[in-house]
Amino acid sequence: MADRVTIQDIADALGVSRNTVSKAINNTGILADATREKILQKAVEMGYKQFSYVTLVDNGASGLRLQSPEEQARAQASASAAIGAQTGTQASAGMGQTGTAASAGMGVQTGTQASAGMGVQTGTQASAGTSQAGTLASAGMGQAGTQAFAAIGQTGIQASAAGVQTGISTQARNQASATASVGIPAVAPVPVSAAGLLPKPVDGKNVIALFTTMFLGNSHFSSTMLDKCQRELSYLGYSLTMHRVNSSNRRAMTLPYSFDPEATAGIICIEMFDMKYDEMLCDLGIPVLFVDMPASLDVGALKADKLIMDNRSNIYLFMEEMVRRGKRHFGFIGEIRHCMSFFERYLGMREALVMMGLPCEEEYYVTENMEGVESPTSDQYQLYVENSIRGMKQLPDVFLCANDFIALDTLQVFRRLGITVPKDVWLCGFDDSPESRVVTPRLTSIHIHSQIMGYSAVNLLMSRIREPSLNYRTTYTETSLIYRESTGDTQA
Asked: Is 398 helix (H, G, I), strand (E, B) or coil?
């Protein structure tokens, strides 16, 4: 098995600093768009773990390419007929190539530089056919927890689909293009229009509807995620329409007037936490994807795929580090029944305390909301938090907040009460919002990889549209812990 690709590997390949690569991948700091795009493309090319399911389409754009069942069947038949895969073997075919390792029709092997025939490319390592060794793309996409990788797309080598290289026979070229690791479906070349877009869906339904109960400009991560999601959908020939579900819709169980089910291929739900309304959407006969979901024990009954960030792992790491620094008393601030993410972050803290043999001190938990208010304003929520803090006999060592905006409200409350962070209490948020980096003190937080969630959302929804009979899946995307001044740290 090839070594795991690291941020340092990407930095070395591009001749940039590790810090620059980290900023691009984690969507933090200030970078030129061209630099960020170049780094992300290299990460895809090298098979970096966060991008392992991303495929580069023929025009070099980081667009997703799904394979039809017919294409999969043809690719599997071609792979079976090809000469057996030879892992780690470099075979020279025809006349020697200076600096080029070649293998003709031997199967695509990750980490093996392959080129079919004897096309002379001095100092160039070219992949067989349309494949690039080291680029992993998810194929199949229909098996929960299973990622089948097929190498496609050639970055840095502009190869014409019909380009005849000296000394390569048509048979050898076609065989090399079709081969993949035995048993793994290959991805066929993608026809690209003059505009650089993939063909429109053949069934005439080319609209993906976004349902939300809020203005996304106020969202902690949705705007960035949807920007990436919309770009990926456009590569696949879909348009994205937005529909706000208001309280009247929810009470009457009605759809927004702007929604056209006849033209809609799939639905993405963001901040849709009304369980009964969500069940109604799932009964429309249209594929549905939830990004986050209601905090309900019945959420598994929703006939839809779910996408959510990992809300537990980095909370455990954070708690472990706080204990190592001598902290023993922890509080939580956030309405835990608001959504599944908030509830999982709350459970993550409690689980960490239990695992480390520390008590769960309920007097430090601010987990409700202002009574009788469904959607409180920031001022209303601050008043609720302030009254809760005033009722505490003493402060815990550390407060963990359900997200960054709750942490920012808590900072405002602390200032009014004369409480200083980090002198009197430490504070951690979740989301790594832009505000967390400019507030004083800068906020320790857990970063959500919004662009990765955008890729994953398209991946899940497209596979559901193509294969409606798949089992329903819940997919978690990884997060990253970032320490800043609110926990006594100076970096980041």
From this structure: strand
Q: Distance between CA atoms of 198 and 233, rounded to whole angstroms?
A: 10
User: What pTM does this model have?
Assistant: 0.64
Opening angle at CA 433, ends 428 and 434, nearest 5: 120
Number of Cβ within 10 Å of residue 379's Cβ equals 9
Say how many residues make up the chain: 492
Closest CA to 376 of 418, 334, 416: 334
The predicted structure's pLDDT at residue 215: 74
Q: Are 150 and 184 in contact (CB under 8 A)?
A: yes
pLDDT at 74: 57
Angle formed by the axes of helices 404-417 and 378-390, nearest 10° = 60
Query: What whole-number distance in Å separates Cα of residue 447 and Cα of residue 25?
Result: 11
Q: Is the peptide bond before 422 cis (omega within 30 degrees of 0)?
A: yes
Residue with tokens 């956030």: 334
Q: How far apart are CA 452 and CA 450, in angstroms?
A: 5
Segment-wise mean pLDDT, segments of 10 residues, the chain, 492 residues: 75 88 71 78 76 44 45 51 41 39 36 35 36 35 34 33 36 38 37 38 85 73 85 93 95 96 96 96 97 94 97 98 98 97 98 97 96 86 97 98 97 98 98 94 96 95 94 96 96 59
Dig out the tokens for 492 from the structure: 């980041």
Class of residue 247 by CB neighbours under 10 A (exposed 0-12, middle 13-18, buried 19+): exposed
For the chain, list the domains and their CATH numbers: 7-51 (no CATH), 207-309 (3.40.50.2300)
What pLDDT, on the 0 to 100 scale, is given for residue 39? 86
Please tell me the distance from the alpha carbon of residue 206 to that of residue 408, in angstroms, as a whole number: 40
The dihedrals phi and psi of 99, each to the nearest 5 degrees, come to: 75, 5
According to the model, what pLDDT value does residue 221 have? 65
Q: Distance between CA 35 and CA 18 in Å, rounded?
A: 13
| Phi/psi of residue 83, nearest 5 degrees | -65, 140
Token duo for residue 389: 């803090």
Residue 383 DSSP SS3: helix
